[in-house]
Amino acid sequence: MAGNAWRSTVSRVMGDIKTQSPQPRTFSRGIQTVTLIPGDGIGPEISTAVMKIFEAAKAPIQWEERNVTAIKGPGGRWMIPPEAKESMDKNKIGLKGPLKTPIAAGHPSMNLLLRKTFDLYANVRPCVSIEGYKTPYTDVDLVTIRENTEGEYSGIEHLIVDGVVQSIKLITEEASRRIAEYAFEYARNNQRASVTAVHKANIMRMSDGLFLRKCREVAENYKDVKFTEMYLDTVCLNMVQDPSQFDVLVMPNLYGDILSDLCAGLIGGLGVTPSGNIGANGVAIFESVHGTAPDIAGKDLANPTALLLSAVMMLRHIGLHGHANKIEMACFDTIREKKVLTKDLGGNSKCSEFTADICRRVQDMD
Amino acid sequence: MTSSQNVSETPPARADSTFKVTMVPGDGVGPELMTAVKEVFKAADVPVEFEEFHLSEVQNMASEEKLEEVLSSMKNNRVAIKGNILTCVMLLFDHKQYLQSYEAESSIKLDLFANVVHVNSLPGYSTRHNNLDLVIIREQTEGEYSSLEHESVSGVVACLKIITREKSRRIAKFAFDYATKKGRSKVTAVHKANIMKLGDGLFLQSCAEVAELYPKIKYESIIIDNCCMQLVQNPYQFDVLVMPNLYGNIIDNLAAGLVAEPVYRLRINCFEGARHPFAQAVGRNIANPTAMLLTASNMLRHLNLEYHSNMVSEAVKKVIKQGKVRTSDLGGYATSDEFTRAVISNLAI
Predict the structure, then answer these.
(1) How far from the centroid of its chain's Cα atoms is residue A37's Cα?
(2) Which of A170, A203, A262 sits opposite B156 (nearest CB)?
(3) What ipTM was reported for this prediction?
(4) Best of A240, A260, A272 to disrupt the B interface by mutation (most B CBs within 10 Å)?
(5) Residue B159 is nearest to which of A159, A169, A257, comparing CB atoms?
(6) Alpha carbon of A318 to those of A32, A125, A278, A294, B322: distances in Å?
(7) Which parts of the chain span the membrane according to its record (chain B) (predicted)?
(8) pTM for this model (two decimals)
C-alpha cells in the first residue's frame, strides 16, 4: 500500500544517527533521561505538547528541564549555566526548543554557545515531503549535513580602515575530515546510496579545495557509498527543478545554512522540519529550527510538528524505534486528515487540539 | 528565462552605423549557440559586426596575453557577448599558478560591478511557479570572491571576504536607479548580518543609507537563508533583490531554476549567456539557443537598436509559444539548428 511504503521511507530517512562511539545509555529501570530545554516564545507550549504526546505513547523518557540563559562565568567569559551543562554531560541526549537571539545583549547567541560548549560539529536535517501537506515539490527525500563549527561563521571580522571590512572564512583539515566521515557513516547506517559534497572550489580554490580534498580522501574508505561533487550554484539550480536527484549532501557552514533552509522550504518550511546536532563526545541535541514566534506565544496557536519530529529523530537515535514509528505515524495521520490543523498548516485549530488528536491516535494504536 | 546585463554607457554610433561587438564563445555548447546568434543576426540584417576570440582555460587556448587581448577588445568595443569559460578544476591544487578564474579576473579588470539577472517566466512554458518577474542584482567585484586565500598554518586555510562601503553604496545606488528606471516598486537587500555583523552589517547599512534617497521605492531586507526558503515557497513577494557576490551566485541559480528546465540560464555580464557549459550536449546539436538569443536581443537594446532587438525577441517568444519546435530540455525533439531556423522564419522583416 502506498501509505506504508511511504511511511517506511520516511522512517528510514529519519532513522538512526549513529556515531562511531557506542550508544550512550543512562538507563535507570529502562528509562532514558533527556535534558529538555523549552526555550523562549512558543518554546514552552510546544515542549509541553511533546511531553504530553510522549506520555500518551508511554515512551520510556524522563525529562529534565533546564534553562540556558547565558551567565558570566569566572574570568568574564559567557557560558551556559553549570546545571544545564552538567545535565547534558550526564544524559548526553537533549531536546531543545527555539532560543531568542538577542541583538545587543552583549553576549553571543545561545545557539552559538551551546554549539561551542558541546562541540556540536554536525547539523543533520532530513527533508522528506509530508504527505498531506502539499507543496509544489512532492518527491523530496534528502538529508543535509552541515559542518557547524567553522567556515564562514568563525565570527572573525576586522575593520581594516573606515569603510572596509574583512570577514574571515576558516577551513581546517580536521573539521573537514570529521564532517566528511560523519556524512559517510550516516549514509552507511541509514542505507543511503550517495553522498554529494557541495562546494565552490572553482572560486575559493584553497579553502573549498581543502574541504573537497578531505571529502575525496574519506570517500576512499567508503566504497559502498557513491561519492559525487557539485558546485553550490548548480545544486541550487537543480534543487528547485528536481529535488529527487539528491540524497545526502555534505558541505561547509554557510552553504549548509542556506541549503538546509532551502530544503526546508521545499517540504513546507521550518514549522515542519526536524533537526539534530551531533557533538564530539556522544552528545546529541535535537531541536526545532524555527523561531520563537513572539507574536503568537502563549496563545495556544503554535504548531509543535517540528519539535515533535525532532523528538522522533531523537527516539530513533536512542534506539526506541517502536515508539518513534508510533508517534510519527500518529502525527502524519493527523496532518493528512486535515481536520485539526494549526493555522500555519492551513487550519483553524489550537495547538492543544492538534496535540490531543495526536495523543488520541497514539493511544488508539495500542 | 533569465536574462542579465551589465550597464555601462552606450558605445558611440559609428560612421557606417555598424556596431563592433567582442564575441567570446567559451567552452561547451558556447560555440554552437554563438553560431545560432550569428545566423539569426544575418537573417535579420542586424548592423553588428563580431570580433571573435577563443578563450578557454581547459583547452589550452589561454594565457595572460590572450586574456589581455580579449579585455582590450572589450574595452574598445564597450560591448561583448560571451559564453562560459570553464574553470579548470585541476588547477585547484596547483594554486601557485593562478588563484583566480578568468571569469573573476575579467569582471574585476573591466570593473563590471553589477550583474543583473532578470527572471521572467516564458509564456507558453509552465513550471511550478508561473508568471514570475524578478530582478536580481549582484555585486560582483568584491565579497567572497576576492580570491584572497592563504594557508597560515598547515591544514588551516583562511579565505577573506572583503566588503567596502564604497562598493556597497555603488551597487545599492545601481539597484535603486534600475528600479526607478524600470518602474519597479520594491528593493530587498539580502544579507547575513546577524552572523557577519561587521561585513554584511556594512553592506546593509550602505543599502539603508542609499534607500533614503529614493523615497518612492520601498526598501526591505531579508536574511539569505530565509530568502532562499521564501523563494521556493512564495517567490511573488519579491521584486528587485540586491546582494553581495556569493549570495548573488546562489540566488541567481535558484531563481533561474524556478522558471526553466534548461540546465543553464543566461546572464548578460557584458552580455553573457550559458553559465554552465552543458558538456553532454556538445556537438550533438541539441542545446537550446533561446537563452543566448534573448541575451543577444538584450544586447541590441543596449546598443539602442530597439527595432532589431524586438524583432529577435519576438521571434524567439513566438516559437516557444507555438510549442511546435522545442529542444529536448523543454521536452521536445528539435535540434538546435531546427530551432534556429524556426526563429529565422518567424522574424517579422
Answers:
(1) 15
(2) A170
(3) 0.81
(4) A240
(5) A169
(6) 8, 17, 13, 32, 58
(7) none
(8) 0.79
Q: Please say whether the beta carbons of B248 and B139 come within 8 A.
A: yes
Whether domain B113-268 has CATH 1.10.287.80: the reply is no
pLDDT in tens, chain A (366 residues): 445 555 555 555 555 454 444 444 444 558 899 999 999 999 999 999 999 999 999 999 999 999 888 777 777 778 888 899 999 999 999 999 998 876 655 666 788 788 888 999 999 999 999 988 889 998 899 999 999 999 888 778 999 999 999 999 999 999 999 999 999 999 998 889 999 999 998 888 899 999 999 999 999 999 999 999 999 989 998 999 899 999 999 999 989 999 999 999 999 999 999 999 999 888 999 999 888 888 899 999 999 999 999 999 999 888 888 999 999 999 999 999 989 999 888 889 999 999 999 999 999 987
Strand partners, B49: B20
CATH architecture of B17-112+269-348: 3-Layer(aba) Sandwich (3.40)
Domains of chain B, residue spans: 17-112+269-348, 113-268
Concatenated DSSP letters of B11-77: PPPPTT--EEEEEE--STTHHHHHHHHHHHHHHTT--EEEEE----TTTT---HHHHHHHHHHHHHH
Interchain contact, A269 vs B202, CB within 8 Å: no
Q: What is the CATH number of domain A136-266?
A: 3.40.718.10
Q: Which residues partner with A65 through β-bridges?
A: A36
Task: Kindly list the residues from chain A whose CB atom is less than 8 angstroms away from the CB atom of residue B128.
Answer: 136-137
